[in-house]
Amino acid sequence: MAELLTVKAIRDAVAAGTVTAEEVTKNCLARIDAEDPRIGAFLEVFHTRALEKARDIDVMKARGDELPRLAGVPVAIKDNMLLAGEKVSSGSKILQDYTSAYTATVVARLEAAGAIIIGRTNMDEFAMGSSSETSAFQKTHNPWDTTRIPGGSSGGSAAAVAAGFVAASLGSDTGGSIRQPASMCGVVGMKPTYGRVSRYGIIALASSLDQVGPFTHTVQDAMLIMEIIEGRDEHDATSVELEDKPVAELLEPSMQGLRVGVPKEYFIDGMDPEVRARVLEAIEVFKQNGAKIIDISLPLSPYALPTYYIIQPAEASSNLARYDGLRYGTRAPGALEDSYLTARSEGFGLEVKRRIMLGAFILSAGYYDAFYKKAVAVRNALRKEFDEAFKQVDVILSPTVPGTAWKLGEKFDDPIAMYLADVFTTPANIAGLPGISVPCGFANDLPVGLQLQAKPFNEMTMYTAAAAYQAVTDWHTKVPQA
C-alpha cells in the first residue's frame, strides 16, 4: 500500500527533530528500490547524491542553523530537467549518454531550499505523448492498476507521487502533461501561468507553451513547491517578476461567494459517463459550500487542440534541429551527411519523427500562412475569449480528462485517440492560463481529476478554490493498494 506523504508533514518533522533528513531519504530510497521495479517511475535514482544532501541538512540542524524552507523533503524531477553532473535524456535514445553541464533554475532553487533531489523520472520522449509509452527506455505503470498507463508526458513524476515514493515531483506541461497524468494517477498537478516559472535548463519542446509545475497530494504542498521555483530568472527572458507571491501558510480555503464558470464545451459527447458524474458531483459540492455556479460558453475552446497540434510541432521541429549527433546526441558513424541522417533516424522514436515532419511541413514555404499564422490568430482569439469569461467568473471548472487511464498499448498505434486525451487541458497552454487538477473521485475504480483554471497570474484564487474543495472532500487522501 502506498503511503500518503506530504511536503508539509516531512518538512515540519525534520524541522522539529522528530526525524532526520537522512532517515526520511533512506526510507524513500528503500521504498523505491523495493517497489519501483513494478511501477517504472524512475529512470535513475541518485542514491549517493541524495544521502549526501540529506546529511548536509542534518548537520545544519545539529549546529542550530535556521533550516531552509523545504529542508529534508524528497523531490523527483522529470527527465527533461538538467542537474549538473547527472545524466538527462528527455526519454530519448539520442540523448542517452548526455550529462548535464549545468543545473536548471527550478532544480537549483529546490536544492537551495533544502529539498533532496531523489532521481529522474520516466517520460514520453521529448515530452511528446499522453501515456509515457513513447519513452525510449521503459514503460511506466499506473500505481492504481499496473496494467494501465499513468498518463503523460510526465507520467513518471505523477506515478512517483501516487505510489508514495516521494512527497512531490516536478513535471512540465506543454499541452496538459502535468494535469492529465495527475488526473489519471489521483494526485494534484498544477500548471502555472506562462512566464511564472523559469524554463532555463528544461529541454525545450515548444517554447511558447512549456511550463514547469509540481505534483503533490495537497494544494498547500503544491503552493510550497511553487513558492520556491516561481519568479523572475535572468536566464529566461520569458520569466516574469512577480509582484505578489502566494504563501502556503496564508491560504484560507473558501468557496463562499466564489463565481465558478462551467463551460458547456467541456462536457462533450463521448466522454466517460462516470467521469461526467464525478465532475457534476464536484460542482454540487461547490454549490453547497457557497459558490455561485455560472453556466458559460467558450465556443473557441474546441479549436485549442488543433491549434496546439500546429503550434507545438512547428516549435518542436525547430527546437529539435539541434540534436544532430554532432553538437548534441550520440554521434553516428559515417561521413557528415550520413552521420547526421543516421543519428536522427535511429535516435528519435516514431512519435517524435511524426511531429518533426509535421512541424517542418507547417513551417515550409507556402504553408506557413495557411497553418501557423492562422493558429496564432486562433490563439489570440482564444485568449480574448477567456479574458471575457473571467470578467464574470473567478475560476473555470471542468473535467481534466474525458476518461480514465487506459490499458497499456491500447491507444499506442492510434495517435489521434491519444491526442484527444488532451482536449480539456490544451486551452490553458494556448491561452497561457494557470490550471490545476485535483482528485474528485473514481470511475470504474480509477482516479478522476477536476480541473480549475484562473486568469493569468491569478493562481491564488485557483489555489483557494482547489484547497476549499479538498477541505470538504477526502479524495486526495486515497492511495493505491499494493
Task: Kindly describe this structure.
The termini are close together. The chain has helices at residues 7-16, 21-39, 47-63, 105-112, 155-162, 179-185, 219-229, 273-288, 304-319, 336-347, 350-362, 368-389, 415-419, 426-431, 459-472, and strands at residues 42-45, 74-78, 116-121, 168-173, 188-191, 211-216, 259-263, 292-296, 395-399, 435-443, 446-453. The longest helix has 22 residues, at 368-389. The radius of gyration is 21 Å and the shape is globular. Strands 1-3-2-4-6-5-10-11-9-7-8 form an eleven-stranded mixed sheet, with helices on both faces. The chain has 15 helices and eleven strands. It is 38% helix and 13% strand. It is α/β, with parallel strands linked by helices. The protein has a domain at 7-254 and 461-477: Amidase signature (AS) domain (Amidase signature (AS) enzymes, Alpha-Beta Complex). Helix 4 links the parallel strand 2 and strand 3. The mean pLDDT is 95.
Query: Can you identify the CATH class of the domain at 7-254 and 461-477?
Result: Alpha Beta
Q: Provide the helix percentage.
A: 25-40%
CATH superfamily of the domain at 7-254 and 461-477: Amidase signature (AS) domain
Describe the largest sheet.
11 strands, mixed
In short:
This protein has 482 residues and is of the alpha/beta class.
Descriptive keywords:
single chain; about 475 residues; alpha/beta; Amidase signature (AS) enzymes; eleven-stranded mixed sheet; 11 strands; about 15% strand
Helix and strand arrangement:
Layout: H1 7-16, H2 21-39, E1 42-45, H3 47-63, E2 74-78, H4 105-112, E3 116-121, H5 155-162, E4 168-173, H6 179-185, E5 188-191, E6 211-216, H7 219-229, E7 259-263, H8 273-288, E8 292-296, H9 304-319, H10 336-347, H11 350-362, H12 368-389, E9 395-399, H13 415-419, H14 426-431, E10 435-443, E11 446-453, H15 459-472
Parallel strand pairs: 2-3, 2-4, 7-8, 7-9
Antiparallel strand pairs: 1-3, 4-6, 5-6, 5-10, 9-11, 10-11
Helix pairs in contact: 2-3, 9-11, 9-12
